[in-house]
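Final report, Chapter 2: Outcomes

The project's central promise was a pipeline that accepts a single protein chain and returns its three-dimensional structure in a standardized token representation, suitable for archiving and comparison. That pipeline is now operational. To close this chapter, we reproduce one record exactly as it appears in the project archive, with the input sequence first and the structure output second.
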Amino acid sequence: MKALVQRVRRGRVSVGGETLAEIGPGMVILLGVGDQDSEDEARWLAGKCANLRVFVDESGKMNRSLLESGGEALVVSQFTLYGDVSKGRRPSFVHAADPEIAEPLVEKFTGYLREHGVATSTGTFGANMLVEIENDGPVTLMIER
């Protein structure tokens, strides 16, 4: 499981011109599920995202977590994080989990974030979404175990 985490001032996800979810300051988490992933990865990754110290404290240092900053999370499933571009010109997605495996794990990840106390919104699994992200910093990290 991979999470491309971005510290944001705001984030919004829409489908067909309709806004599905919107957050203020916090994190947009683009989440990819691999073909070997399990609930253990979802639990670990949610804990890492909730507690990652990428928000600034009073002295301007990245020393606060999403929880400590009171920020929100917007989780958007993105199988393309498992794109392999090592051969040819078209990405291969053979290492991305099938939707039957990926969707429940995305839901588990989101549930674990909420269990940590993070206000969490989501896009729609498998939909062609418009994701608006106003980066703060920018701070962008790829997290995987």
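Archive annotation: The mean pLDDT is 97.
This record, like all others produced under the grant, will remain available to the consortium after the project formally closes.
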